Amino acid sequence: AEAFQSAFTAGRQVQHLVSYARAKGALGDRVAARDLRAQAEKLVRRDLAEGTLGHRLDLATLLVDRRDPGDIEEAVELLQSELNVRKTANVFIALAHALLLLDRADEAADAIQSALSTGARSAQSYAVAARVEAQRNQLNRAQFYADLATNLDPQLREAQDADRSPIDGAKPARGFRTASAVQNPTTSAPKN
């Protein structure tokens, strides 16, 4: 906890404050998590208004973390604006995640494919792709991306959660891809 606070103080990096809030929330201290997110939001909004350090991705991340539909709508608008400035994998991944939370899976699929087309090959990008495909009921594709994510980071909770179908809690079939497909992240996802 102190490490997050020190890192934030040293670099005024809102990401450290957000990580600290997530850690507090994971430990059950929802009040501290809420207060830290509010502090980070105030700083980012001020920086954006002044045209200084903060940018829309930081604010969108905070808004999505709160899981309020109105905040998520604002996050989508911010991320779409951010894409006019920087078309990075992180912005596309955040947009896909936000759209997914709003049950806009087809738009989320476009965003995550844009992220992957930038060359994003992270466990997080594959985990979001898995969740998008699961929500679209493309279970083979969801399993493919979940396998890629867990191959890169077996502890990634998002990838493990993507293993669950959104329909009746059914799990997609395991083992439909060969090990070589999982080791080669440029392999295309299967068509369902």
Structure description:
The chain is an all-alpha fold and 192 residues long. Helices cover 71% and strands 0% of the residues. The protein has helices at residues 2-11, 14-26, 30-50, 56-66, 69-85, 89-101, 105-117, 123-135, 139-152, 157-162, 179-183. Residues 6-10 and 162-186 have low confidence and may be disordered.
Short précis:
This protein has 192 residues and is mainly α. It is 71% helix and 0% strand.
Count of discrete alpha- or pi-helical segments spanning 4 or more residues: 11
Helix-residue proportion: over 70%
Distance between termini? 44 Å
User: Compute the gyration radius: what is it?
Assistant: 17 Å
Oligomer: single chain
Mean pLDDT across every amino acid position: 81
Structural class comes to mainly alpha
- Apparent shape: globular
Let me know the number of strands: 0
Percent of sequence in beta strands? under 5%
Features:
192 residues, mainly alpha, 11 helices, 71% helix, globular
List the helices and strands and how they pair.
Blueprint: H1 2-11, H2 14-26, H3 30-50, H4 56-66, H5 69-85, H6 89-101, H7 105-117, H8 123-135, H9 139-152, H10 157-162, H11 179-183
Helix pairs in contact: 1-2, 2-3, 2-4, 3-4, 4-5, 4-6, 5-6, 6-7, 6-8, 7-8, 8-9
